[in-house]
Write a structure and sequence with these properties.
single chain, 6 helices
Length: 128
């Protein structure tokens, strides 16, 4: 559960970082931008040490998948060690407007996952 929540948080935060955080508040809906800034502030307050460095790296290069993965991993570790933070993060995420279509999918070992967008589509998954 922690990794899914961390994935959602990084996906929600990335667009705000790409628009230089505070600058977005001038151009986007103020409520949504304010929520993005609150999420970033929360992460700065809760993360420490290695995790805070990972967030700093992501702020410098928000398009970097390596930095996104690093923050995701560090945030998941924090949530696993301090599960009392999960409701706080969930509450913040409900206020952040998703940057378009966002989908998170976790497929376990041996599993098959598919994603599709549009209407009147079908997917068939057969055995190996």
């Amino acid at each position: 559960m922690s990794i899914e929540l961390a994935t959602t948080a990084v996906a929600a935060l990335s667009p705000y970082l790409k628009e230089a955080g505070m600058e977005l508040a001038k151009n986007a809906g103020k409520e949504s931008a304010s929520a993005g800034v609150k999420l970033l502030t929360w992460m700065h307050e809760k993360l420490s040490g290695r995790a805070k460095k990972a967030l700093s790296n992501l702020e410098q290069k928000p398009d970097s998948e390596l930095h996104q993965d690093d923050v995701r991993t560090q945030l998941a570790k924090l949530l696993e060690s301090q599960p009392e933070l999960i409701p706080e993060l969930r509450a913040l995420l409900t206020k952040v407007k998703a940057p378009g279509d966002v989908m998170t999918q976790t497929v376990g070992e041996g599993g098959i996952g598919n994603q599709i967008k549009g209407g009147q589509n079908t997917i068939s998954i057969s055995g190996r």
